[in-house]
Amino acid sequence: MNILEEKGINKEKLEEMLSRHISKDIVIADYKVKLFKEGVKHNIYKIPITYMHRKNDSANNILFIAKISKEIKEYYYGEDHENNRTIYEIMHGSAVAEFIEQNEYIVKFIGINQQRDLFLMEYAGENSLEKKLKETYDKGQIRNLDNVSLIWQVINALVNTHYDLNRLKIGGIPPLQQQHTNKLHNYIKSILEAKGKTITESLSDQIKEDFKPIDYHLTRGTLDYKPVELSIIHSDLHPAHIFIDPLKIIDFKVTAGPPQFDLVDLLEHPLTYRVFENPRNEINNILSTYLHKMKILQLKTLIGEDAKKVMKNGEIEELPRDFLDIYYLSAFYRGIRIAAKSFHLEQKYPKLYEKLVEENPLYRGYRDWYLSHLKDLFNIMVNEYSLNKKLGKENMNKFKHLYNILADNIEEINSGINTTLIQV
After folding, report:
1. What is the per-residue burial (b if ≥16 Cβ within 10 Å, else e) of 380-389?
2. Three-state secondary structure along the chain?
3. pLDDT, tens digit, for every residue of 88-132?
4. Is 358 exposed, middle or buried (0-12, 13-18, 19+ CB in 10 A)?
5. What is the pLDDT of residue 205?
6. Are 250 and 129 in contact (CB under 8 A)?
7. What distance in Å separates the CA atoms of residue 334 and residue 328, rounded to the nearest whole number?
8. Rounded Cα gap, residues 70 and 43, in angstroms
9. What is the pLDDT of residues 196-232, one digit of tens each?
10. Do residues 149 and 301 touch, judged by C-beta distance below 8 A?
């Protein structure tokens, strides 16, 4: 008995799923199940299938992926929000199903088992954006036009995907209720404990108190006194979740959050960052283009007062300061998150961590880069007039105090190593 059969999907059930995806007259001649990748929460299996049409004896081959949870849970728990469900769970009986079928970028969903711990989906290929960037980095050629073009392709896909998803009426998306503060505290705690340091109760309280003003604005997605600026986002859009030839996005979760989270995960990555000769200017240009294209799409469906809301003085505003300020705050928060998850993985799952380092020797250096990068982000934010004005002196002082706590306890922040990734 293979793992699919153990999870309640026999040949007949697999044939039924495949028939819905391809054609109603499918007969499976043969299929195999091979472990492809081991993860912390899920294992990934390749499912090569040979099938025929009932009216045609010629054999066809297709490859799918089975994502199987290691623990059965009622819901997947998201990276930042409690009880957030994958797009594949929410799509069951919703408008998302039709969207997934029509969207050319998100991998297609094939089926789910009764226990809801196995998802069968389209195979995205072998070449992730991270793999492509790493290969050019190893050759000392990461700063090239092909890589820049790939990143712009992802941005264009993200514009269309964000826009289309947020036009759908999807129920059951978890609300954001200032959960980032507790998450950030736990991330910092993980980092300090991995370094053999104790986080006292008073320090815990101080971290939470210092971050609350930032959390409030991240939860709303805006620093301005205006309606909440949240979207349905991927919530983990790093280059390893983006595949090329053709462009496909995997592991799309359904999370309500600032769209800057997705942009940060892609652009403030140690490999993506190195593609640009002048990262800050070029990233700002990308953000401006993302917003401009998004607003053009919005204007196609808006009229009257609604249309005026996306305009400023009758024109599309290129890069509103509010959007950029939330981007920087998101980058600071997400950098701590990513570093903490790396430390947690090394501490709790050392064999899996070493396997990841073996597959990608740069992986160990990622977290050092993210931590060192916090200093660059902090220096930008404390000198950003609009951010200081909107946060106010008291809240900005709290943010500075939080940064000083981190810098005093995490040596990588002041190491200046973010210009180099060392293979260990």
Report:
1. ebeebeebbe
2. CCHHHHCCCCHHHHHHHHHHHCCCCEEEEEECCEEEEECCCEEEEEEEEEEEECCEEEEEEEEEEEEEECCCCCCCCCCCCCCCCEHHHHCCCCHHHHHHHHCCCECCEEEECCCCCEEEEECCCCCEHHHHHHHHHHCCCCCCHHHHHHHHHHHHHHHHHHHHHHHCCCCCCCCCCCCHHHHHHHHHHHHHHHCCCCCCHHHHHHHHHHHHHHHHHHHHCCCCCCCCCCEEECCCCCHHHEECCCCEECCCECEEECCHHHHHHHHCCHHHHHHCCCHHHHHHHHHHHHHHHHHHHHHCCCCHHHHHCCCECCECCCCCHHHHHHHHHHHHHHHHHHHHHHHHHHHHCHHHHHHHHHHCCCHHHHHHHHHHHHHHHHHHHHCCHHHHHHHCHHHHHHHHHHHHHHHHHCHHHHCCCCCCCCCC
3. 454 444 555 666 667 889 888 788 888 878 888 889 998 999 999
4. exposed
5. 96
6. no
7. 10
8. 7
9. 998 899 999 999 999 999 998 888 888 876 666 677 7
10. no
Q: Which two tokens stand for residue 365?
A: 């250096």
Q: pLDDT category, 76, cuts 50, 70, 90? A: very low
Q: pLDDT higher for 384 or 57?
A: 384
What is the rounded distance in angstroms from the CA atom of residue 3 to the CA atom of residue 118? 10
